Amino acid sequence: MLGDEEVLEAVQGYIEERGESLAETLSGASAITWHSLLKGQIVRSIESRSEEKRLQPGPLDLSGHPVYDTIGDYQIPRPRDPAEQRTRKMVRRGSIDERSCACGNGEVRCPRFEGEGKIRCEQHQPCGSCRNSTCCLLCDGAGRSALKPAETQAAGGSLQKAGGDTGDRTRCYECGESDVACVTCRGRGRVQCTTCQGDGSRPCPDCAGDGKVTHEHCAGTGRTVEWTEGTITRTPRTDEVKLPEPGVLYWARRLADQHATWTPTTLTDDDPLRACVQKDFASALKPLLRPQHQEIARRTKLEYVRFVKVAVDEHPHRIYYVFPSRGLPKVVMRPSPKRTWQIVGIVTGLLLLLVLINRFIA
Ligand SMILES: [Zn+2]
Ligand SMILES: [Zn+2]
Ligand SMILES: [Zn+2]
Ligand SMILES: [Zn+2]
Ligand SMILES: [Zn+2]
What we know:
Blueprint: H1 4-17, E1 31-57, E2 67-68, E3 86-92, E4 97-100, E5 107-109, E6 118-120, E7 124-126, H2 149-155, H3 159-162, E8 169-170, E9 181-182, E10 190-192, E11 201-203, E12 212-214, E13 223-243, H4 250-259, E14 263-265, H5 274-289, E15 295-311, E16 318-323, E17 330-335, H6 337-361
Parallel strand pairs: 2-3
Antiparallel strand pairs: 1-13, 1-15, 3-13, 4-13, 5-12, 6-11, 7-10, 8-9, 14-15, 15-16, 16-17
The protein binds zinc ion (ZN) (5 copies).
């Protein structure tokens, strides 16, 4: 860990390296403030146990499943890796009940069955060629001419265009007029159903006419298996740790991520950093480290860094950060917040001035 002396030496060296000189050697006159940061993750394994009645078509071999007596008492080893998602399915001892299905043979009566294995069907379908609108230019499928007899003659030649149709026309089956009807439906607006050929009934597609369908409940096996299934699920839950809370030491944290050497800490009894971390973050860490409901394992992976902010009297517009690093301490210089606001103020002032000048010129 860094000490005050070492820190001041490092800042002094940094300033001299920049070719600047100080009137006197840095000492207690410079304000040194120590800060610390903590980052990392706490990964917990959260366990849940449940029981559920299961039913499946038989026969079914459940012998590969582990057997339990009381779901809450079943022992399985704690997970080696808390980040692993695991689900274990088990069978309660003595709960397997295999029996024959009420249907007997896996078949039930077809619910659409209407005698002789057929179901009702439409005898006709709308004509696809004329779409039922202009099946006949004269009677529109009604069989009666909309025109008076005198007009019928005169209209005859031009009717083909009147309906907007361009295709061939034929004699209308309904009104008897020639060259007015759709060739497909002959003025009827509908055609014979192709499924039943106008019969009005067709074979049932579900049972192919024999009146029996597979029983879904037993999937046609005629047997069912019921049992009580116990499930133990282990789900990882990760909490990010970033202390102090966001916003505080924002710049220092960014610089520390870039320049500092962080020290891992596990917060266990044999961790030499434990006392130090506890001292700095005890109250913030307490709720984070509290065991959670159904937590069975955890992995705490944290890193800690303690660094210094140095204010030098001769450089009131700067802050020197000193971070521990692998070799010598790392010094980083930033304008002080006061200086930053001054610069922002000057820029804003200049912009306002420009606006004013612009107005005057205009
Ligand atoms: Zn059945
Ligand atoms: Zn017609
Ligand atoms: Zn038609
Ligand atoms: Zn039909
Ligand atoms: Zn059927």
